[in-house]
Amino acid sequence: MTVRLYGIRNCDSCRKARQWLTRTGIKHEFIDLRDTPVNREQLVAWREALGDDALINKRSQTWRAFDEQQREATRQDPIPVLIAHPTLIKRPILDAPPHTLAGFSAERYEAALAGAD
Fold first, then answer.
1. Are strands 4-7 and 29-32 parallel, antiparallel or unpaired?
2. SS3 category, 71
């Protein structure tokens, strides 16, 4: 199984997720969203798997800095906004087919990755 973790290097939740994956011996690849932006197809797949509420980080500084017009544009069609503002993506995103998870929870990761190596 290919396990990919998407996030931002200095994000505390991403660090916790990476440490957990390493501690549990699960091989994974970390992709920094600032260095390697995700493409439209990947965002569409995440949106279908997670839904907008789980994908868009409305607690982020990016969201708080948006005016109401930018927020409404994000609600209408979040994909172009997420491409332009990757820090708006809730992180980390664990992509371990067939599972896609947003945010870090050791319990959820353990359940999704049972048997992964």
1. parallel
2. helix
Pick the CATH number of 4-112 from 3.40.630.30, 3.40.50.300, 3.30.390.10, 3.40.30.10: 3.40.30.10
The per-residue pLDDT for 116 is: 63
Q: Report how far apart the first and last C-alpha atoms of the chain are (Å, whole number).
A: 7
Both structure tokens of 117: 């190596």
What's the order of all strands across the beta sheet hosting 29-32? 29-32, 4-7, 93-96, 99-102
Count CB atoms within 10 A of the CB of residue 26.
Answer: 17
**Number of Cβ atoms within 10 Å of the Cβ of 102:** 22
Entry pTM: 0.91
Q: Which residues are catalytic?
A: 11
3-class secondary-structure state, position 55: helix
